[in-house]
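To close the section, here is one more complete example, presented without commentary so you can practise reading it yourself. The ligand is S-adenosylmethionine.
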Amino acid sequence: MEQIRTLTPRTAVIWSVLRAELDRRAGERLSVLDVGGGTGGFAVPLAEAGHRVTVVDASPDALAALTRRAAEAGVADRVRATQGDADALTGLVEPATVDLVLCHSVLEVVDDPEPVMSALITALRPDGAASVLVAGRAAAVFGRAMNGQLEAATALAADPHGTTGGRDTLRRRYDAADASALLTAAGLVVEEIHGVRVLADLLPAAVADGQQAALVELERALAARSPYRDLAAQLHLFARRPA
Ligand SMILES: C[S@@+](CC[C@H](N)C(=O)[O-])C[C@H]1O[C@@H](n2cnc3c(N)ncnc32)[C@H](O)[C@@H]1O
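Output:
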């Protein structure tokens, strides 16, 4: 696990949770599915740690970058890049074959998150785990308001999907309760919820860049605690398919 060293304020909390799961399964070579895994920011370190990772992503460009990155890291044989849609996973991945599913920053952009969640649980083996990262609604409300966009903040707070409408780059944002309900409805048992980037996006760049190690520690210290967790830019849910 030494090779997983991508500890930035944006990823440290997620890696802490994933590392605990990898430690729990120590000695096993896990089958990992990274849905919307993009250029492999998580897939490549997991492959470096010895696991077999399939990345399903809609973007050929992202998959080309992933393939290059995996080759440069010397793990091309453990990373499979598959072009496809998150809600059509069933045709791409054998049911009940995956130990760990990652679905990071994807549910906000797909047409409908429910079939994606349903496909994820179908792919998981019993006792397999899901790592789901979604955009947080409260941070977006605060962000708009602090930029002087009070109408947008009001719209975002009131909208059932947590968007400001047509021009918003995301189709939906979540509170911890909404996100948890989505996973639970799919049949997963939510074990942990953490806030990711509680402070990272709010600090001046000089502070965030100049004191990165201290910021990583602070993000870790606040991630599971209310009210800090609920104000984070992203919410990370770790859930499990019942055995
Ligand atoms: C914001 S990026 C996140 C990348 C990566 N998961 C991460 O956290 O760094 C969203 C990724 O989801 C992919 N994506 C968007 N819609 C998708 C869909 N319907 N099916 C599969 N991938 C999709 C995009 O191509 C992009 O690579």
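Once you have examined the tokens, check your reading against these statements. The two ends are 26 Å apart (CA to CA). The pocket of S-adenosylmethionine is lined by residues 36-38, 41, 57-59, 62, 85-86, 104-106, 109-110 (CB under 6 Å).
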